[in-house]
């Protein structure tokens, strides 16, 4: 039973699948269980983003320059776009996972997996359309994505190793 604003008990309506198995009706109105305490300083989950963003911007600039020198402005934009896709994708994943861990650690796995499914589906669509087209920048886009993934992963691994050794 729950209580209305006037204090009179109102029946708890079961959901679409009926009552919760093994949960007495009287427990449905009780307080939520205690959650584990939040970390004293949750900023460590995102502290690497500033450095990684700077490295990604440097890589984006290098990719655009190389693309321009090798094949012109279309390749420059495509290579920079590939690096940008990876940067946005990895930053989004980091922010979603950090937020989920701060709110409720049990959300990390489902939200992390959902984020990966969505971003890799979008990346797959982008690359599939790019490969099947006659667009002259498709090779540079693919190389930009590859360079972005390799550099982002290497720098993040270096950062985690450095942080772990510091502790």
Automatic annotation (TrEMBL):
Composition skew (Polar residues), residue ranges: 1-10
Annotated region described as Disordered, given as residue ranges: 1-20
Transmembrane segments: 49-70, 76-100, 107-129, 141-161
Keywords: Membrane, Transmembrane, Transmembrane helix
Keyword Phosphoprotein in annotation: no
Protein name from the UniProt record: ATP synthase protein I
High-level lineage: Bacteria, Bacillati, Actinomycetota, Actinomycetes, Micromonosporales
């Amino acid at each position: 039973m729950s209580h209305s604003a006037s204090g009179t008990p109102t029946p708890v309506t079961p959901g679409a699948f009926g009552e919760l198995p093994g949960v007495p009706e009287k427990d449905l109105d009780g307080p939520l269980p205690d959650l584990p305490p939040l970390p004293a300083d949750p900023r460590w989950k995102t502290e690497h983003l500033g450095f990684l963003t700077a490295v990604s911007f440097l890589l984006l600039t290098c990719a655009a320059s190389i693309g321009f020198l090798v094949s012109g402005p279309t390749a420059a934009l495509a290579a920079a776009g590939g690096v940008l896709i990876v940067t946005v994708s990895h930053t989004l994943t980091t922010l979603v996972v950090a937020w989920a861990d701060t709110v409720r650690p049990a959300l990390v796995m489902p939200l992390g997996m959902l984020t990966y499914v969505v971003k890799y589906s979008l990346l797959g669509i982008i690359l599939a359309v790019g490969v099947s087209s006659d667009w002259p920048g498709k090779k540079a886009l693919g190389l930009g994505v590859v360079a972005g993934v390799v550099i982002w992963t290497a720098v993040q691994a270096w950062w985690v190793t450095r942080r772990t050794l510091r502790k």
